[in-house]
Every structure is written in C-alpha cells, then in structure tokens.
Amino acid sequence: MSKTNMPGSCFLMVHAVPKSVLSRLESELSALIHAQGAWEWLKSPNLAFTVDFNSQVSEPMLSGSMAFNANLDTVSQIASRLAALRTIWFEVAIEYSMHGLGQRYCYTPLLGIFHSQLDEVGNQVFGENQLKSLTENHRGSSLQQKLREVLGVEWDSQLEPLRKANYEVRYLTDLAS
Fold first, then answer.
1. What is the pLDDT of residues 82-138, one digit of tens each?
2. How far are the Cα atoms of 7, 32, 138 from residue 69, in angstroms, in the given order?
3. Helix, strand, or coil here: 110?
4. Most exposed of 58, 65, 73, 91 (fewest Cβ within 10 Å)?
5. Residue 20 CB partners (closer than 8 Å, separation 6+)
6. DSSP state, 53?
7. Is the distance from CB of 120 to CB of 96 less than 8 angstroms?
C-alpha cells in the first residue's frame, strides 16, 4: 500500500458556509468520506460580521467541524471539491504519521486555496527547492513578502477571526448543555 493510500487522522473545520450551500457541501463530503448526517451546524451571530472580506454572501452563515480517517488523496479531493463551491471558508488537515508528512489546506473565497506540509508537531515543512526558489526569485517583491506567502500568513489572518468566533459559539453551546 502506498503512502498516499494509508489512512490517517483528519480534521475538517468549515469556518463559514452559507446555509444555501449546506446540502451540496454535505453531498460532496458524503461521497468522499461517507459521513452523512455526522454534522452539527452552528449559527454564530458574529459570523456574518466576521466573514465580511469583500464577500457577496448576504445570508446566514454556519460553521461545523468533523474528525475522520482518510488518506492523503481523499484530503486533497476534499479541499478541491469544497474550494469549487467558492463561498466557504475552511481548513482540512491530515496529521503527520509514520507514513508521511501531514498536509493542511486552507481556503477563503478572496484568496483561494493554500497548501502546506506539516511535521509531527504541526510546523510547516519546506523543501530545499522551494526555499531556493524563494530566495532566488523574489523579483518585484521583498523576501519578507514571499515568506509571508509561503507561510500562508494572509490565509491565517482571514481565518483567525472565524476560528475565534466559532470557538466562542462552541464554548457557549457547551455551557448551555
């Protein structure tokens, strides 16, 4: 069995999705990971305000998360299919294992998709050729700006307010139950 076919521990966080897209999102996911009905969608009163990154979305936004087992190919397919929906803010990752590096995909409608490899403690890992290219080909922009792009700083800047808003909603929901 190849490394990409070995199942690993995965996590998907849909930070914000318009209610009108939910059925399509769930359909895409159930086709890939057979997780039909496993979602608990939460509505955050702060989410619509937080998501305002030049978005055309003007309907209620929901969030949800799921842990599952899958292989690297499936995780990349999830990222690709969810990005094709274009109005979702999400992250999907597979943890590092003895079979290979972890992978993390982030998506925002404004920035598109970001991908990085992860080591056993969640640090991003960069290859020698990637670093050489970065230092040699930074024409028209500073090395600092290129490093920010490779690290996904803009994606994290857009997703962090959503992470915080979703954490608050989940915390309050847990307190109420």
1. 999 999 999 999 999 987 899 999 999 999 999 999 999 999 999 898 888 887 876
2. 6, 11, 38
3. coil
4. 58
5. 59
6. S
7. yes
CB contact at 8 A, 101 and 115? no
Q: Position 134: which residue type?
A: L
Integer Cα distance of 150 and 62 in angstroms: 29
Helix axes 143-151, 153-176, angle to 10 degrees: 40
Give the C-alpha separation, 172 to 10, whole Å. Answer: 25
pLDDT score of 131: 85
CB 70 within 8 A of CB 7: yes
Amino acid symbol at 24: R
Which residues sit opposite 124 in a β-bridge? 118
Q: Say if residues 166 and 15 touch (Cβ distance below 8 Å).
A: yes
The β-bridge relationship of strands 89-94 and 61-70 is: unpaired
HSE of 131, CA atoms in CB hemisphere, 13 A: 5
Number of domains in the chain: 1
Lowest mean pLDDT among 19-28, 46-55, 60-69, 101-110: 46-55
- The residue among 134, 78, 133 whose CA lies nearest residue 104 is 78
Look up residue 156 and give its amino acid. Answer: D
**In which domain, by residue range, is 140 found?**
3-176
